[in-house]
């Protein structure tokens, strides 16, 4: 068993680290303070071919694997979570559904502009009454001739309301038990989902609570599709998060993503993949907090010497280092399992649960080591502390991860 990264993986780690330290770090505090979306940084990420790392080059992607993607997310989050989640949500949630389940025509239309960063993709799953109970979707889409008519609302959606947002893939109820599944938009059933790693999801046309759920692409600018005002958030202030509404929103029948009724299975698979990215964010934030805490402890003098020489501080730093290294290996294992086309549901949930909690703990310890300065916004650990908590909530709460893990164990 080789724990060393390959030269290609080392290269992407080094490239993204240099970019994060050189381009993101100098503006991270200002972006967070002014709640300004990082358009210029996204443009530069696109020029470096980092907005589509795990997708084939034939569609404009980077041709990398899941581990390369996780490394990039980790390195960005070491410096700033808002930039990291913008890339992470765009890749795992916005672009991935089109690649995995889209028809060849859909992939040719959307993937080049998504992988280049010219446009951002979003995934509309969460609703006011469908959070952890994701199958309780209330948004509906009905066929009217050759068009889907969408009505409903989504909330906490990332990347949907920027100037460069291109589309959102939404989950919608397209039928109930006993209804005949009328077809629209051709047979997209093939897609490329058969090439995806097995995730232990439901059967292709599995239903949630008697509902037939499908995924539908809704381009930005479509009449009847509105993006609400951005939320006032605790953290991730430079990322775009807002509610969405659909009222008589008409899209072509061909915008159906994959076969009708496959949406429940599809979003379970997307969430599994997304957890690897968010777990990488947890490791990155924890590492960033440790880096800041160590640097401060070595520079800060008390009682005639650096506080890093006191055993109380050393114990905190040592514990953070041990937990981060263990968590990092778990994240990399999940990424490697996906790349090996193995079932990674359990490992991804374990990694997500472990790293989210660890990020919160390491951010708190870093603030504690900084003392009063840790409570001042000019110090990155203050931002890290605010950014960390969402990692125990987004992409499935800790409690949901525990359920997924227990079920995977056969409990």
Structural class: alpha+beta
CATH topology of the largest domain: Butyryl-CoA Dehydrogenase, subunit A, domain 2
Topology as a string of helices (H) and strands (E) = HHHHHEEEEEEEEHEEHHHH
* The CATH C-level class name of the largest domain: Mainly Beta
Radius of gyration: 21 Å
In CATH, the architecture of the largest domain is Beta Barrel
Major β-sheet profile: 4 strands, mixed
Percent range for β-strand residues: 15-25%
Distance between the termini: 30 Å
Count of the separate structural domains? 3
Give the oligomeric state: single chain
Strand order in space, largest sheet: 1-4-5-8
Q: What spatial form do the alpha-carbon principal axes imply?
A: globular
Low-confidence sequence ranges: 183-205
Q: What is the H level of CATH, i.e. the homologous superfamily of the largest domain?
A: Butyryl-CoA Dehydrogenase, subunit A, domain 2
Tell me roughly what share of residues is in helical segments: 40-55%
Count the strands?
A: 10
Mean pLDDT: 93
Count of DSSP helices? 10
Structure notes:
The protein has 411 residues and is α+β, with helices and mostly antiparallel strands. It folds into three domains: 109 residues, Acyl-CoA dehydrogenase/oxidase, N-terminal domain (Butyryl-Coa Dehydrogenase, subunit A, domain 1); 142 residues, Butyryl-CoA Dehydrogenase, subunit A, domain 2 (Beta Barrel); 142 residues, Butyryl-CoA Dehydrogenase, subunit A, domain 3, CATH 1.20.140.10. α4 packs antiparallel against α6 and α8 packs antiparallel against α10. The chain is globular. The protein starts with 6 loop residues before the first helix and ends with a helix. About 6% of the residues have low confidence.
